Amino acid sequence: MKDKYWIAFSSMEEIGGSSVEKLFKYYNYDIEKAYNCNLCDLKNIENISVKFAEKFLKLRDKTDPDKCLFEVTSRDINYLTLENNKYPKLLKEINNPPIILYYKGNLDCCNFEKTIAVVGSRKASSNGKQSLKKIIDGFRNTDICIVSGLALGIDTAAHKLAIENNLKTIGVIASGTDYIYPSQNKELYAQIENNNGLIFTEYYPTFRPLSFRFPQRNRIVTGLSFGTIVVEAAIKSGALISANLTLEQGRELMCIPGNITNPNTEGIYKLLKSGATMITESNDVLEALNWEIKTEINTQNDKFKYLSDEEQIIINLLQIEPIAFDTIQNKTKINTDELLTFLTMLELKGIINQVEGDRYTVC
């Protein structure tokens, strides 16, 4: 059972995956020989320093591969090593691919031939979330798989929208599976793991979500995907790092334009000026990726049938931007009780929702 050596390598926090990959190749793709190498051989490997060699040998002497394997399997964690034929082909193409992917969920339910990454601000605006909703709603009931990082803000919105639209989704985390970060997403983790996709990580189960692991995680989010959608990104942000990784990996970079007064769109317009594809609807994404998809008959417009004149007036008002109750009343001249009834009925029909206090917007 050679898998235990891959797991043992990944359990050494101080040893980078790129160094393990060099060892693996040097020993003609035999991971057991790579793990049991000696100092003399290590000195002969190009770009392997003496300092690294000594550190590795010291750590290896303290590591029990059988125990490492047990720690993983006893937690019901599945995994894919670099030599596993189910390891995502697209991810294997990037520089420094993860030597192992630990996962929870159903590997076979995700279509790795139709993957799209979504990245953006942790402090996402309602406009950004609504814009993303418009895009992902257009993929409803297809085999497209949404990949993101399970962070707050745009990541969380992307995963939830995927689930709402009957799409599979992959959450890539920056820690071992012993940790749920952020804790607010505990229920979302469970939804993805149990029914709607995969939780992926390159980190051994006990590794904590330390800050330097989040940028490392980003290369996996974009590396798994044929293209990346950037929703909101400040000039200095993790989303912009992901955008640059997308270009380095030779994948399609797509941006949703936003409010020019929002600091989180400064990065978006910088990317658009540099040649990123602007998208405003789902078909723009399909054209950029040269994809054709088959969907079930779109019944999205059915809910707009049989609306009263007053309801239609309200919807027309809310198409542009979220509007407060008092403003709706001033413009429609509908009395308070009737307006509350119309708004409630439109919410129940799934046509509008309430955001930012008493402001309403079209879903």
Plain-language structure description:
This protein is 43% helix and 13% strand. Helix 12 (238-248) links the parallel strand 7 and strand 8 (252-255). Helix 1 (3-10) crosses helix 6 and helix 11 (213-223) crosses helix 12. The chain is α/β, with parallel strands linked by helices. It has three domains: 1-73, no CATH class; 107-289, Rossmann fold (3-Layer(aba) Sandwich), CATH 3.40.50; 300-362, Arc Repressor Mutant, subunit A. The chain is elongated and about 85 Å long. The protein has a nine-stranded mixed β-sheet with strand order 1-2-6-5-4-3-7-8-9, with helices on both faces. It has a three-stranded antiparallel β-sheet with strand order 10-12-11. The chain is built from 17 helices and twelve strands.
Write a compact overview of the structure shown.
The chain is of the alpha/beta class. The chain contains 17 helices and 12 strands.
Could you list some keywords that capture this structure?
363 residues; alpha/beta; Rossmann fold; nine-stranded mixed beta sheet; 13% strand
Question: How are the SSEs ordered, and which strands pair?
Answer:
Layout: H1 3-10, H2 17-26, H3 31-35, H4 39-43, H5 50-60, H6 65-73, E1 78-81, H7 89-92, E2 100-105, E3 115-119, H8 126-137, E4 145-148, H9 154-164, E5 168-172, H10 186-196, E6 197-201, H11 213-223, E7 227-230, H12 238-248, E8 252-255, H13 266-273, E9 277-278, H14 282-289, H15 309-318, E10 323-324, H16 325-332, H17 336-348, E11 352-355, E12 359-362
Helix pairs in contact: 1-6, 8-9, 11-12
